[in-house]
Amino acid sequence: MSNDNQTSLTVEEAQKLLKNYTCLNIKSEEEAAEKAKIEEALRLVVKSSEYQMLGVCASSQTEGFIALQNYLKGLGYQDVIDGNAVGPVEGSVYIKFNTMKKSYYMDSYIGTYRGVLVSCQCGFEDGVNETYGHFPLDLFNPI
Question: What DSSP character marks residue 81?
């Protein structure tokens, strides 16, 4: 994970900002400045945790793995995920990815949310242990 990104937020400010979006349906058409602020806040809380669990709720396996790959890249990970390493799942999917183990689990999903949960995990007292989201599937999409 890259730590090269400069930030104008403190960890506390980032957490407060991200909590405003918990379990809300954020429109993909959010202003670029607002999306950039959310991306910055996510990068900061990720940097302040040991590892993360990403939970992707998507309408299809393809959509889910594209979102997962974009989030990983956007959060500074260089991992390439092979979405074909598991058998196909028809319809909506839930993908759970562990950044420490570099492994994932996928299953069918009947819920209505579409988006990404980011769960920060840390064993240190001053680290971030929180779950944020659902964020838009396309938050970290390349322009």
Answer: -
Q: Which residues contact 33 (CB under 8 A, 6 or more apart)?
A: none
Q: Above 70 in pLDDT, residue 142?
A: yes
pTM (two decimals) = 0.83
C-alpha distances in Å from residue 72, one per residue of 31, 78, 90, 99: 22, 7, 24, 9
Task: Set out the domains of the chain in order of their start, with CATH numbers.
Answer: 11-135 (3.30.360.10)
The first and second tokens of residue 7, run together, are: 């930030």
Sequence-distant (≥ 6) Cβ neighbours of residue 58 within 8 angstroms: 64, 67, 92, 93, 95, 109, 114, 137
Q: pLDDT tens digits, residue range 63-98? A: 999 999 999 999 999 977 887 788 889 999 999 999
